[in-house]
Amino acid sequence: MEGGIPLGSTVLVTGCSGSGKTTLCMQFLFNGARKGERGVFFTITEPLFKLTKNLEGFGFYDKKLIESGMVNIIDLRIISERLGLDAEKYTVEDAGALLDILKDIADELDVKRLVMDSITALCYRLQTREMIRDFIFKLGTSLAVMNCTTMLTSEVPPQTFKFSQYEIEEFISDGIFFLGDVERRGDLIRTLQVIKMRGTPHSRTKFSMNISSQRGIELMPLLKSNEFESFLKR
Amino acid sequence: MADAVIEGIRERVTAAIRVNVSVGIQVPENRHADLLEAIFASMCKNTHDMWSFVTVSKSYDYLKKSYKEIEQYQNIRFIDCISRAAGITAKHHTCTYIESPGMLEFIVLELLNSFHGTKPDTEKFIVIDSLSALMIYNDPQIIREFITLLMNRARSENIHVISILVEEEMDSNKIIQMNDKIIVLRDSFID
Fold it and tell me: Which of A185, A218, A223 is facing B149, going by the closest CB pair?
């Protein structure tokens, strides 16, 4: 990508479990914080202690950035509890209230980078497809005026070339990063592909993605020779 | 006599790699150990150069035991592609372990990472031991692609590449032709 993600964009980071979505988003926040851009990570899937424990092994992780408030990690389930919402099921009003709170937090902290992990888990708490659709479009509208660069993670089943669970999430996103894997003789190799990124020219090739404890996410063009064969097998 | 042969191989490889970006060395199986000894001698002698040695045929643990001096040198880094696949869980600060010899992109990544922070005037060298062993775990077509990627990255970063081919594995014969220079070592004399 030439010059990185354009400021203020919303990127859907999509992939199956274990594809590296959370690590990618965390590295995005910590790297931003080092450049003076405050960030917030909203989680609805993992408890805070577990998230931070997993981060401790990475070279990009810096506890001081959390302590100084440059990186904020917030559990949405705790916020729901404090708002008196049913953490498992949201009504339209609940979802609206939650969205307002998210916006207020982001404004108050003056964040430049925001992550929501995951939009799939959040939408799972909504009862109907219409509610999900309505919530996602409202979220899109809110993010558009927030003046911060956002990553929304989206969970999809393994070995599928699908960007989201509800097939609406991609329409509010300026960019889509697809994290997948290819199997090569029994080895699973993580991959990353930028499907779209509005506002900047970018490569659409598939990269192999390494998650290094020292260096975090690393990319190298994926060797293509076996890919067609693996696609046919699939 | 053996020392003289090893010294001869060392001089030949050193001379070739100084003037060519990539050198392929075709060696019979029974001379493989001599070639490794010659290469390690070169690495230890030129401490101002930076070397990354990719081992696919023997584990780093084994190399350390066989060539005791190699772990003392700060200018030599190892990338072991075979230990993890063989269930060996050893760790060493001068060695990076790749999960599987099939994860070729990660070998390139680790090679490039191993040269991070080196001074601009440092000569950088990569040794792949061996293309034949990589062929056991990968299809020939993907090895060709891997070598092409590696050579292109190496050329752009001024890194010299030495790739070893054990002669008995003639399937990989075409791949070694991708090098700028090919040295063929014979059973009884240096060709």
Answer: A223
pLDDT value at B83 more than 50: yes
**B 99-128 residues inside an 8 A Cβ radius of A:** 99-100, 102-106, 108-109, 113
A105 touches chain B (CB under 8 A): no
Q: Which two tokens mark A90?
A: 């949201």
Q: CA-based angle B188:B189:B190, to the nearest 5?
A: 140
- Chain B contact for A210 (CB, 8 A cutoff): yes
CB of A102 within 8 A of CB of A72? no
Structure tokens at B93: 């600060």
Q: Do B139 and A225 touch (CB under 8 A)?
A: yes
pLDDT for A193 equals 95
Confidence label for B1 from pLDDT (cuts 50, 70 and 90) = very low
CB contact under 8 A, A222 and B105: yes
Chain A nearest C-alpha distance from B54 (Å): 18
Residues B3-57: tens digit of each pLDDT: 666 677 777 777 777 767 788 888 888 888 888 988 998 888 888 999 999 999 9
Which value, in Å, is the radius of gyration of the alpha carbons in chain A? 18
Domain layout of chain B by residue ranges: 2-184
Residue A197 lies in a domain: no
Using the beta-carbon criterion (under 8 Å), do A225 and B113 form an inter-chain contact?
no
Give the CATH superfamily of B2-184: P-loop containing nucleotide triphosphate hydrolases (3.40.50.300)
CB B61 within 8 A of CB B31: no
Please give the model's pTM, rounded to 2 decimal places: 0.85
Q: Is A198 left (phi over 0), alpha (psi -120 to 50) or beta?
A: beta
